Amino acid sequence: MTDFLSEIGSGPKLRRASRSAKVVYGTREVLVGGGAPVVVQSMTNTDTADVIGTAIQIKELARAGSELVRITVNNAEAAAAVPAIREQLDRMGIDVPLVGDFHYNGHTLLNDFPDCARALSKYRINPGNVGQGAKRDTQFAQMIEMACRYDKPVRIGVNWGSLDQALLARIMDDNARRPTPWSVQAVMYQALITSAIESAQKAEELGLAGDKIILSCKVSGVQDLIAVYRELAARCDYPLHLGLTEAGMGSKGIVASTAALSVLMQEGIGDTIRISLTPEPGGDRCKEVIVGQEILQTMGLRKFTPMVIACPGCGRTTSTVFQELADDIQSFLRNQMPVWKSQYPGVENMNVAVMGCIVNGPGESKHANIGISLPGTGESPAAPVFIDGAKALTLRGDRIAEEFQDIVLEYVKSHYAPVHGVINN
After folding, report:
1. Residue 116 among known ligand-binding residues
2. Is 357 marked as a binding-site residue?
3. Is the pLDDT of residue 1 over 80?
4. Short-list 213, 199, 215, 141, CA closest to 166
5. In angstroms, how far is the first alpha carbon of the chain from the final one?
6. Which of 124, 129, 271, 293 could anchor a disulfide with 103, C-beta 3.0 to 4.6 Å?
7. pTM for the predicted model, two decimal places
8. What are the strands of the beta sheet with 39-43, ordered from one edge?
9. Which of the four pLDDT bands, split at 50, 70 and 90, describes residue 188?
């Protein structure tokens, strides 16, 4: 089997070799690159000047599994609020590192609000938005100087919609002199990549250590993102932050992000990801964290929470019982993980099957750690439960959902609780 798998190719390619950047807050260290697990991050959409509202959303994102949280620092009020946000998070026991997102006036804000500069664990700089003309190099240098002064890593994040116009003009002039000029699309790719790499090299010349730099080149098109990051990965060894700059709303945003990031990570490219979903009115910001985790977990790159396997339903399953149970179980497992991940190490490896009829129900349930095969339309009103491949009992009546949830909880307690100091893996 090993030879056969080797021959046909199974699993992602080896991760691209890169430097390792460390993002720190207190005793919490998040490693990006250098072979570390791919990091999931997110960004708040609150007014940063609203200390309590922003701290609450950061807490929600961190509890959902965001390992870094970025906040907008766009004016004096936001910069002044950052230390208070950090203090509020400390009171709530939330040690997630904060990333400051700067555009246009970052050099001024970091200089005028040193407590903000210290409270942040990382800075994000967009080379296209640090200044125009002669001011650009000076203001970029001022931000890098602050990063050096406070020993902070920096993400140099280039965006398709805010390219450095002087650099773009230079590359367009170079292209015009080519015997066979590149397409407009190719010129844009080259400008994105050149902006990121030249900015990183400039930061190193200014004294920022190479292991404190992370790069990104964000666009909104799937094929564009894949093409740009393949070339960027080939031309540098900095850790890479992946994500579409505007993925979109709902299923479109999820599908686009999954399509782009999965291709790149299958090729070993990418060290940290952010799923930039536009939330529906009143929607949960944490959805982007969950989607990021599920992309990594379904690809076999990381484990975050027990997986629920559920059939899609068909004419045999006209009852909605199994749909409701699958949803209840999945919500139950995810809601328990903030506690379980410390109390029951390894529980994230558990698989739970919730199946809707006799066709695939028993077989699929046997492959899971715990599985239940609910009766389909016209089948006997009984639900066999399988534990570690063997039928353990049969549930009947109106409390199947509650009883199955209790069985799952008992399985977690009996199989994943540390025994005499030994942690199960």
Report:
1. no
2. yes
3. no
4. 199
5. 24
6. 129
7. 0.94
8. 213-218, 154-159, 122-125, 98-102, 68-72, 39-43, 272-274, 241-242
9. very high
